[in-house]
């Protein structure tokens, strides 16, 4: 048996044994676990420096490490010693005491690093004295999903006109010939996971990344470019070397980081004039329109399907009633030709899609429905969701926006809500927002209306071709101008985008810009209306622009005096006074004073702010 001085970790083992004794009565299983950990630590022949180092031993987990850490901190305080630092990437051999003479002398090498607190990683090595086994660089199996994606992206990088950023559909179309699986159909027992899911593995390994903008476009990192080049060489793709040089030159010269470009646009734009500067996107749209080559879906090659938002309910006690009634009505009226599905929609409560009969690809048709019960309509007017929802419908790019209002005739509703508000909102929808308005008396009538509308669209599209805009040409910043320009130049074409791109473009949170968040911040100031906020963020698109201009005023330096505060408020009021235009967009003296006081305070403890 080893002597006491040969046990370098006996103090730690003693602390864990004490914890085992305390837990013996209340939790015998925990006591047994602590005892096993104590023996493992005690018999370990190498001095452990940091508590996390013990994670490599059998029977030692995070709870044991936590106990050792607390006890070690107390011991260091009593001994006036410094708490030990963890050794990063320190390699040592596990050799318990008393096992030197066993026949099997194979040992395990353990890598202790920053990640050891979450998991332990064991690398088997040869017997003592030999070199450690090197970790292999990851490489996908031949013709699996990740292989196909990498080879496709590398081959697309060799095209002269290719961009560094490639959309999903383009990658899939090229990757299918290098992979034995389908990227669109579910694989194995999964009902919704396709082989495109392997893209997450590539992003996890920092081989392929995607932009923060919507719709997502993907690009290869330096590591991914090298790996994909070796895979493409095995696939005998020609001219890789020359294509690599040409592409990297284009990347360095013409394709700055999208994140840097976005930040430059946000913070370096000169907008000190009251008028709106022309958007740079407006100059790009004509050139994009000239290059767009739509994919035409011939009439009869697709079917029409209704998509209902899965959060739409008929009542609090019947969550599926609306969908079931709509589906049953469709089956009776259309004989099963039209289908209905439920999904989480990014915008609207119902819309219609066209599904290609051969490929199964989905595109969004030009009709969308926002369903409102009368009580929900009134509450949305009160909390301003009404205006936000109308704006999101407009930004969707769909021409046929329908407001479906379920109006109850009960006396309770008549007494609870002001009828004038309801009438005003209905008139505003039709006159100002160019929306169609349809009123029903019950949710069943709403379901029947959606089914009827589905049948009408089915008849309309029997002899209509669809012009699908390729995903490569779509970005959030140019989407609406591009769609408008295409409709003007080719009015006889029915322009559509894929469902996936539409859902990505209209995601509620993913597309928020600095200007959007800034507008929400300003809107929280009491007295700011939608019109005032719109004019304010047009004048100052970012907080930084407003902050710099406001703080550069001479009166700001003396903002503690009443005269300086008054001058700041007057200056702010003048900035949004545009030649006697619509007064609803002007701040006024009282609101200007409130905003100027807010941004000239040295602290914000005042209850009114």
From TrEMBL:
EC number: 3.1.22.-
CDD domains: WH_MUS81, XPF_nuclease_Mus81
GO molecular function, one term: metal ion binding
Enzyme class: hydrolase
Transmembrane segments: none
Subcellular compartments: Nucleus
Cofactor(s) for this UniProt protein: Mg(2+)
Domain annotation ERCC4: ranges: 305-409
Keyword set, alphabetical order: DNA damage, DNA recombination, DNA repair, Endonuclease, Hydrolase, Magnesium, Meiosis, Metal-binding, Nuclease, Nucleus
Tree of life domain: Eukaryota
Main location: nucleus
Subunit description: Interacts with EME1.
The name this protein goes by in its record: Crossover junction endonuclease MUS81
Organism whose genome encodes this protein: Phakopsora pachyrhizi
């Amino acid at each position: 048996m080893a002597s006491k001085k040969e046990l370098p970790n006996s103090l730690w083992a003693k602390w864990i044994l004490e914890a085992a004794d305390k837990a013996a009565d209340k939790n015998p299983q925990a006591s047994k676990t602590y005892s096993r950990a104590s023996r493992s630590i005690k018999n370990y022949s190498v001095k452990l420096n940091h508590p996390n180092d013990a994670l490599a031993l059998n029977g030692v987990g995070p709870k044991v490490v936590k106990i050792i850490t607390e006890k070690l901190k107390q011991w260091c305080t009593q001994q006036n010693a410094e708490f030990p630092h963890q050794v990063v990437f320190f390699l040592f051999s596990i050799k318990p005491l008393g096992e030197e003479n066993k026949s099997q002398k194979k040992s395990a090498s353990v890598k202790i690093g920053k990640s050891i607190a979450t998991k332990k990683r064991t690398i088997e090595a040869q017997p003592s004295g030999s070199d450690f086994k090197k970790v292999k660089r990851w490489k996908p199996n031949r013709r699996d999903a990740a292989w196909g994606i990498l080879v496709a992206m590398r081959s697309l990088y060799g095209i002269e006109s290719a961009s560094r950023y490639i959309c999903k559909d383009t990658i899939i179309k090229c990757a299918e010939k290098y992979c034995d699986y389908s990227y669109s159909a579910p694989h194995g027992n999964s009902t919704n996971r396709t082989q495109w899911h392997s893209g997450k593995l590539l992003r996890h390994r920092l081989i392929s990344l995607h932009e923060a903008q919507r719709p997502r476009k993907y690009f290869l990192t330096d590591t991914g470019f090298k790996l994909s080049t070796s895979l493409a060489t095995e696939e005998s793709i020609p001219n890789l070397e020359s294509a690599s040089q040409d592409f990297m030159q284009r990347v360095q010269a013409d394709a700055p980081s999208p994140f840097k470009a976005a930040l430059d646009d946000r913070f370096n734009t000169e907008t000190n004039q009251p008028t709106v500067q022309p958007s740079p996107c407006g100059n790009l749209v004509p050139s994009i329109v000239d290059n767009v080559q739509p994919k035409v879906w011939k009439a009869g090659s697709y079917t029409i399907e209704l998509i209902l938002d899965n959060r739409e309910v008929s009542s609090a006690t019947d969550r599926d009633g609306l969908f079931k009634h709509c589906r049953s009505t469709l089956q009776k009226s259309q004989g099963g030709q039209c289908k209905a599905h439920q999904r989480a929609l990014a915008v609207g409560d119902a819309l219609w899609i066209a599904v290609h009969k051969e490929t199964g690809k989905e595109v969004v048709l030009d009709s969308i429905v926002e369903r409102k019960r009368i009580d929900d309509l009134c509450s949305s007017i009160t909390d301003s969701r009404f205006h936000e929802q109308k704006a999101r419908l407009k930004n969707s790019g769909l021409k046929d926006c329908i407001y479906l209002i379920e109006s109850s005739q009960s006396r309770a509703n008549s007494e609870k809500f002001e009828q004038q508000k309801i009438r005003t909102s209905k008139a505003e929808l039709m006159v100002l927002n160019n929306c169609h308005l349809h009123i029903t008396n019950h949710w069943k009538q709403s379901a029947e209306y959606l089914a009827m509308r589905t049948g009408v669209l089915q008849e309309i599209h029997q002899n209509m071709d669809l012009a699908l805009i390729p995903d490569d040409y779509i970005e959030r910043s140019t989407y609406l101008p591009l769609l408008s320009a295409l409709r003007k130049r080719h009015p006889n074409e029915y322009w559509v985008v894929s469902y996936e791109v539409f859902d990505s473009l209209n995601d509620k949170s993913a597309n928020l810009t600095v200007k959007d968040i800034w507008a929400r911040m300003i809107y929280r100031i009491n007295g700011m209306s939608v019109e005032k906020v719109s004019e304010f963020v047009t004048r100052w698109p970012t907080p930084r622009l407003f902050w710099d201009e406001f703080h550069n005023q001479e009166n700001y330096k003396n903002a503690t005096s009443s005269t300086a505060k008054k001058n700041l408020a007057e200056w702010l009021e003048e900035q949004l006074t545009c030649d006697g235009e619509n007064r609803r967009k002007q701040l006024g003296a009282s609101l200007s004073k409130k905003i100027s006081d807010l941004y000239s305070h040295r602290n914000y403890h005042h209850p009114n702010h």
